[in-house]
Amino acid sequence: MEAPLPEPEPLKALIEALRRLPGVGVRSARRMAYHLLQHDISGAEQLGQALAAAVRDLRHCARCNGFSEAEVCPTCSNPKRDASVLCVVETPADQNMIESSHGYRGLYYVLMGRLAPLEGIGPQDLQFDRLLRRAGDGQVQEVILATNFTAEGETTAHYLSELLRAQGLSVSRLARGVPAGSELEYVDAGTIAWALMERRST
Amino acid sequence: MEAPLPEPEPLKALIEALRRLPGVGVRSARRMAYHLLQHDISGAEQLGQALAAAVRDLRHCARCNGFSEAEVCPTCSNPKRDASVLCVVETPADQNMIESSHGYRGLYYVLMGRLAPLEGIGPQDLQFDRLLRRAGDGQVQEVILATNFTAEGETTAHYLSELLRAQGLSVSRLARGVPAGSELEYVDAGTIAWALMERRST
Ligand SMILES: [Zn+2]
Ligand SMILES: [Zn+2]
């Protein structure tokens, strides 16, 4: 049921743009637009500027593939981190969770996704070649696969494990202390620290 | 649990700004930010521009208080609309719904909210004086109160009814009753009681 009313163009355009956010349908988008325009103009301006700045200033770190302002992010440039261990995660949120466990001092690689054959997301989409080059820098000795313990995360870990071992690298997986079927982002930091300590080679 | 990881500033700022959207917590905001930056840069640009344009180009119509690009919106300037009837709604979405019924050819006034004493939203916040001036233009004969049939909407309608009648205007309310196309067996008893009380001779 499309509104036959001549809504002003800028309002229509804003509702359309808000609908591109994940999980936002037309009703939510309309509610968000009304809220911003009626009650939070400064929030609308702030969001508009934050989007422009993020698009302009963020790129992928050349080493870990995470979001970064610099060519190489502060974590990857930190000489105090152990360059012989590389932890592979699906998203920056997962990296945050591992970091907050204070159980890890190595480096990271952020896949920005996971293999999902049913959604048509394969190894090319995730640029596994970049990860293989990164892991083959001569410094990395061990790769810890910290993808989620979901079906897709396990598939991704299994697939990467084969590729990385073929390069002569030692590969491990977070210990099964993490409840099966759960996403790392929602697991408490203590469990993650324990699972890091108990990691097994695969 | 704040992320101790040095997230890049533009990413942090974007997540903060997305949190100002109604119904969006920190996890949703982060997911939205990742999605836009990783999978939909053009969506991020589109939303940024739509927000800037909406803030710049939209204002409240001087007559109906709805969002408008012009001083007076196209609906209020339309000479084919019946200027003797004014329909009062809570939001532009409600106006859209009434318009889509094709049962109304009069004009509108959009409250952009409703009385909600528990949230501290009173008559001043909704600028009822503007509505009273609009309804007192000498052309309006009847005001139809089409606020929602919720506790707040009913309170608002009752309050406005007194004010408008004191100005000598004829005031009506949308009829309550059994929804068109519904079976009595599945209609709640309160609605049936109302429909009985408000029964009309045929
Ligand atoms: Zn990096
Ligand atoms: Zn208007």
Overall description:
The structure is a homodimer of 202-residue chains. By secondary structure, chain A is an alpha/beta fold. Chain A has a domain at 82-201: Dna Topoisomerase Vi A Subunit, Chain: A, domain 2 (3-Layer(aba) Sandwich). The first copy, chain A, is 43% helix and 13% strand. Chain A is built from eight helices and seven strands; from the N terminus they run αααββαβαβαβαβαβ. Chain A has helices spanning 9-18, 26-39, 41-57, 74-77, 92-100, 128-135, 151-166, 189-197, and strands at 59-60, 67-68, 82-89, 106-110, 142-145, 170-173, 200-201. Chain A has a five-stranded mixed sheet. In chain A, helix 1 crosses helix 2 (26-39). The longest helix of chain A is centred in the first third of the chain and has 17 residues, at 41-57. The first copy, chain A, is elongated, with a radius of gyration of 21 Å. The model of chain A has no long low-confidence stretch (mean pLDDT 90). Chains A and B meet through helix 1, helix 2, helix 3, strand 2 and helix 5 of A and helix 1, helix 2, helix 3, strand 2 and helix 5 of B. Bound molecules: zinc ion (ZN) (2 copies). One zinc ion binds next to helix 4 of chain A. Chains A, B: May play a role in DNA repair. It seems to be involved in an RecBC-independent recombinational process of DNA repair. It may act with RecF and RecO. Chains A, B: InterPro entries: DNA_Rcmb_RecR, Rcmb_RecR, Rcmb_RecR_Znf, TOPRIM_dom, TOPRIM_RecR. Chains A, B: This is Recombination protein RecR. Chains A, B: Keywords: DNA damage, DNA recombination, DNA repair, Metal-binding, Zinc, Zinc-finger. Chains A, B: GO terms for molecular function: DNA binding; zinc ion binding.
